[in-house]
Amino acid sequence: GLAIEVQGDQQAWFGFAGTPGYLSPEVLRKDPYGKPVDMWACGVILYILLVGYPPFWDEDQHRLYQQIKAGAYDFPSPEWDTVTPEAKDLINKMLTINPAKRITASEALKHPWICQRSTVASMMHRQETVDCLKKFNARRKLKGAILTTMLATRNFSAAKSLLKKPDGVKESTESSNTTIEDEDVKARKQEIIKVTEQLIEAINNGDFEAYTKICDPGLTAFEPEALGNLVEGMDFHRFYFENALSKSSKPVHTIILNPHVHLVGEDAACIAYVRLTQYLDGCGLPRTMQSEETRVWHRRDGKWQNVHFHRSGSPTVPTN
Questions:
Q1: Residue at a domain's end among 104, 124, 144
Q2: What is the pLDDT of residue 97?
Q3: Which of 11, 16, 160, 274 could disulfide-pair with 32, CB 3.0 to 4.6 Å?
Q4: 179-233 pLDDT tens trace
Q5: Are residues 304 and 188 in the same domain?
Q6: Roughly what angle, to the nearest 10 degrees, separates helices 173-204 and 127-154?
Q7: Could you please report the per-residue DSSP string of the chain?
Q8: CA distances from 250 to 205, 286, 314 (A)
Q9: How far apart, in Å, do the first and last CA atoms of the chain sit?
Q10: Is-contact 220 232, C-beta < 8 A?
Q11: pLDDT recorded at residue 99
């Protein structure tokens, strides 16, 4: 385990370490911290012991940390219906965001739920807590089994190579976690490439309705058609959809070359790529247009939307 001994009310930055669900807000903010972090962790443990699941939980670690920093927890029904108000009060005092106002260990020992447990604490057998804890652990084990299967399948060839070596070393937990994180990043980048392809397909099909669903209403853009001016909103693009793209009967094929995706946190991303568009001109001759594009994406309510793009090179509307 990880531990450090502090004297008195000493506070310092001892590093960012620990089990994610038990970390206190001050640790996540990288503020100097001391003994109050232990009371926060005790509050999390008490919460789990009473109902069988943690106060803060999300598969996404970034969202989990946001919950913790905001102190976003509650006492949902029906599990908490039979828990005494005194127990909830003690948890609230332990899970106080401000460490200076958080209950201390000596104060907690004097709390009614602790020192008057014979009259205050509920004496009922909490089988529901045991059942909830089993269900929560089952979900975690299922996720672990899925990730293990993914790793085993993906690294099958590498594993066979290790088995052939007498001094082969098993992959560490740290490297396994790194692989999982790398795969998550890779999947998110592919998601950005896919939604970009969907947007371009809507342009090629002259489908303004589909285009507006993928773009933010306040979309900003620098593009050749705007002659170097920054345009905002959908009206500028509507003109081309209604008067050129939707009326064009020429077959159009677009491919994205060398896409590079930069993830900016959990809900923002930027993609840069070269766009090649093939079409037939008025004489039936094949033509190709090239443009260099950068698009900024923002995820709202689980849906990616294009909020800005910058395009150089040829106009996107094929000419005769």
A1: 124
A2: 94
A3: 11
A4: 545 777 888 899 999 999 999 888 888 888 899 999 999 999 988 888 878 889 8
A5: yes
A6: 80
A7: -------TT--B---S-S-GGG--HHHHTT--B-THHHHHHHHHHHHHHHHSS-SS--SSHHHHHHHHHHT-----TTTTTTS-HHHHHHHHHHT-SSTTTSPPHHHHHTSHHHHTTTTSS--S--HHHHHHHHHHHHHHHHHHHHHHHHHHHHTHHHHHHHHHSTT--PPPHHHHHHHHHHHHHHHHHHHHHHHHHHHHHHHHTT-HHHHHHHEEEEEEEE-GGGTT-EEESSHHHHHHIIIIITT--S-EEEEEEEEEEEE-SSSEEEEEEEEEEEEE-TTS-EEEEEEEEEEEEEEETTEEEEEEEEEEES-SS---
A8: 10, 11, 17
A9: 71
A10: yes
A11: 93
The string of pLDDT tens digits covering residues 35-48 is 899 999 999 999 98
Backbone angles phi, psi at 59, to 5 degrees: -60, -30
Note the pTM of the prediction, 2 decimals.
0.43
Using alpha carbons, select from 179, 233, 198, 177 the residue that is nearest to residue 303: 198
Please indicate, yes or no, if residue 268 is contained in any of the structural domains: yes
* 257 touches 274 (CB < 8 A): yes
Domain that holds residue 222: 184-313
Amino acid identity at 184: D
Cis peptide before 85, with omega less than 30 degrees from 0? no
The percent of residues above 70 in pLDDT, for the chain, comes to: 71
User: What's the structural domain count of the chain?
Assistant: 2
Tokens coding 163: 């088995």
Mark which of 96, 124, 152 sits at the end of a domain: 124
The CATH number of the domain where 88 resides is what?
A: 1.10.510.10
CA distance linking residue 92 with residue 115, whole number of Å: 17
Structure tokens at 105: 């260990």
pLDDT at 160 over 90: no
